[in-house]
TrEMBL record:
Residues 4-197 form the Isochorismatase-like domain. Pfam families: Isochorismatase. NCBIfam families: PRK11609.1. InterPro entries: Isochorismatase-like_dom, Isochorismatase-like_sf, Isochorismatase_Nicotinamidase. GO terms for molecular function: nicotinamidase activity. This is nicotinamidase. It is an enzyme of class 3 (hydrolase). It comes from Gramella jeungdoensis. Belongs to the isochorismatase family. It comes from the Bacteria. Pathway: Cofactor biosynthesis; nicotinate biosynthesis; nicotinate from nicotinamide: step 1/1.
Length: 203
């Protein structure tokens, strides 16, 4: 079964948002159009409590985009973003949501960041997404959303590790940094994932 996985299409990752991805809003019409081509559509939301450990503002002298060690793991310190129940955490208002069957939220634990929609960054806690997809017989996953070099990339890595057939729809994503996406893209291909353009999608 072909499943569209929409990663973090939230206001804070859109131009004008707290952690804006350049041209992040450009993917919304395509994501809307693509939904009808899939048997199942699911979405993730970055969903942090206030004072989350990934926020620079939660650390004394923390600087945005600086990398620190957090419980032994490298952690980028981000601007406050996707705080639960704020407008920044809502989906882009243009995103069609009627076909989204389930929403998986991540980053909800105060001390642990979670780029992937499947597991937190330390791989300690599952969101339940892998089990949900397996129960639905959703073997072929197609990824779109934000940001290509973080949450989309980490979600694909985990999905490949779980044995799913994974394809990134390249024009359905945008990166925070182009050079990081280039590395991510090579890694996805090396790990057995596919990268296509939406025009290459066979119905
Ligand atoms: C993301 C950084 C921090 C993302 C989430 O959705 O790519 N990036 N939190
Ligand atoms: Zn986040």
């Amino acid at each position: 079964m072909r499943t569209l996985v929409i990663i973090d299409a939230q206001n804070d990752f859109m131009p004008g948002g707290a952690l804006a991805v350049p041209e992040g809003d450009k993917i919304v019409p395509l994501i809307n159009e693509l939904q009808s081509k899939f048997d199942l559509v699911i979405a993730t939301q970055d969903w942090h409590p206030q004072g989350h450990a990934s926020f620079a503002s939660s650390h004394e002298n923390g600087k945005e985009f600086e990398v620190i060690k957090l419980d032994g793991l490298d952690q980028v310190l981000w601007p406050d973003h996707c705080v639960q129940n704020t407008n920044g955490a809502e989906f882009h208002s243009g995103l069609k949501t009627s076909r989204i069957e389930a929403i998986f939220r991540k980053g909800t634990d105060l001390r642990i960041d979670s780029y992937s929609g499947f597991y937190d960054n330390a791989h300690l806690k599952s969101t339940g997404l892998a089990g949900y997809l397996k129960e639905k017989d959703a073997t072929e996953l197609y990824f779109v959303g934000l940001a290509a070099d973080y949450c989309v990339y980490f979600s694909i890595k985990d999905a490949l590790g779980e044995g799913f057939d994974c394809t990134l729809i390249e024009d359905g994503t945008r990166a925070l940094k182009a050079e990081d996406f280039e590395k991510a893209r090579i890694d996805i291909l090396r790990k057995g994932g596919k990268v296509i353009k939406s025009g290459d999608l066979e119905l």
